[in-house]
Specification:
single chain; 459 residues; 5-stranded mixed beta sheet; 30 strands; disordered N terminus
Length: 459
């Protein structure tokens, strides 16, 4: 009954990068953003006949909505089919390339780019129904004059949103930046690594602080490992943050590093983009109706402390987490202990929300409600629904209904949240995760959501 996750994306919970010898960022192509779609009417008011399909697949390079001039730079367009077929065609000096004889769906990339430019290698596709595309070329903002070796004296201070490139010299290298948003709104930071090689995995360590204080290097507020374009190994990070007016002035420091299965690939360049995505709209969270019917969204019952103890799932199973021992009961929408042999449900499974646990230890003792854990109303990336949720609003709603032990019964979305949190924070990491070293827990990939869970046992 275990559900093995085929692809793991990370939690986020909220600011939100990519590697490639020359990797780049682009906005999605709009359907009408192609040559020939804005055709004027001829004299007499009659429409021009539709342009015949000449069968050619074309790529046009644009910058600021104008043709990108190559000025003699040699560059090829590349069409790669899902079956491994590969075709190329040269660009002319006006940034236009075409090829005949293709049939099917293709990922479109560039062989290279002049220094100082980037684009998003993972975004563009050509099909039989959409043969003519534009690739948007972006200018890379020069790095600040610091080496990025720490979060204070040598941090690279970014002054504006835009596209950046960082070089990592080896598999254990990291470079640190900081950005202070100037206005309220929704922001993201995203890596732009080409996922085809599938050998390098970019990771973002986020350190949220103020002018006078930041977390220590190596103890990030949040680890973002995923959320963007991905392959089986390479997962671009994408970190989102919703910034209200009273949060303007917070310092968002971040360090970029990698995991790799090919140490010979270094040094590598990782391109990333910081974007402003719109005005701040508030921390809105609406529990899904199918889980939180009105009669089920209630304050958890208090157990008589003289009769019952809260026992962690790991403690009940020799320090090992095993999700086969629990199942979702459709009658109440909560996870229960479960006997696979008889198909019967037992006691309700709970999760610590606003109190510390054996794994989640904070200075305030408030668990997920601690300010450093919440990261100023960041979001978490739902592995199941593959979308971002506002963390502060999400977990705050549950915290409002816990019992005196700070627990709430585990719902399906809480299970998804806990799995996303554990994966993104690498609580289990080949024996080196915090849950493994500090609490002595053991877990398979699909069972780690149980790290903060337990049941009530009568003494």
């Amino acid at each position: 009954m275990k559900k093995i996750l085929a692809l793991i994306l990370t939690l986020i919970i909220p600011f939100a990068f990519a590697v490639a010898g020359c990797v780049d960022y682009n906005d999605p192509l709009q359907p009408d953003d192609r040559p020939g779609t804005d055709v004027p009417l001829p004299p007499g008011g009659e429409d021009n006949p539709p342009e015949e399909d000449d069968g050619k697949f074309t790529v046009q390079l644009v910058q600021n909505n104008k043709p990108f001039q190559l000025d003699g730079y040699t560059l090829n367009a590349q069409w790669r089919g899902d079956d491994g077929t590969f075709y190329t065609a040269p660009f002319n000096n006006d940034g236009y390339a075409e090829i005949e004889g293709l049939d099917g769906d293709y990922q479109v990339t560039l062989s290279t780019l002049p220094d100082g430019y980037t684009y998003e290698t993972n975004k563009y596709r050509s099909t039989n129904d959409d043969k003519k595309i534009k690739i948007k070329i972006e200018v890379i903002t020069p790095n600040p004059d610091k080496d990025g070796s720490d979060l204070y004296n040598n941090v690279r201070e970014i002054q504006s949103t835009g596209f950046y490139r960082v070089r990592l010299e080896g598999p254990h290298s990291q470079v640190c930046y900081q950005y202070v948003p100037r206005r309220a709104g929704d922001y993201s930071i995203q890596s732009l690594m080409d996922i085809r090689a599938n050998e390098i995995n970019p990771i973002l360590d986020v350190y949220v602080g103020t002018v006078g204080w930041k977390p220590t290097l190596g103890n990030p507020s949040w680890i973002q490992n995923g959320g963007g374009a991905e392959n089986t190994y390479t997962k671009n990070f994408k970190y989102d943050v919703r910034l209200s007016e009273d949060m303007v002035g917070n310092i968002y420091s971040f360090c970029i590093r990698t995991e790799s299965i090919n140490s010979s690939a270094f040094p590598i360049d990782i391109d990333f983009v910081i974007e402003y995505n719109g005005e701040y709209t508030g921390n809105v969270y609406v529990p899904p109706d199918e889980i939180h019917a009105e009669e089920e969204w209630r304050t958890m019952r208090d157990y008589d402390a003289s009769l019952y103890d809260f026992r962690y799932a790991a403690d009940l199973n020799g320090r090992k987490l095993d999700s086969d021992l629990y199942a979702l009961n459709p009658e109440d929408g909560f996870y229960h202990e479960y006997d696979e042999r008889t198909g019967t449900f037992g006691d309700i499974l709970y999760v610590k929300i606003n109190q510390d646990s054996a794994v989640l230890v904070t200075e305030t003792g408030t668990g997920f409600m601690d300010g450093q854990v919440q990261i100023f109303a960041m979001r978490f990336y739902s592995l199941k629904n593959q979308q971002n949720y506002d963390f502060g609003a999400f977990i705050g709603e549950y915290a409002a209904h816990v019992n005196r032990d700070g627990v709430y019964a585990v719902t399906e979305e809480l299970r998804d949240f806990l799995q996303s949190y554990s994966v993104s924070q690498r609580l289990f990491n080949d024996g080196n995760g915090w849950a493994e070293t500090a609490a002595g827990y053991l877990s398979a990939e699909e069972d780690q959501w149980l790290f903060n869970c337990g049941v009530y046992r009568r003494r």
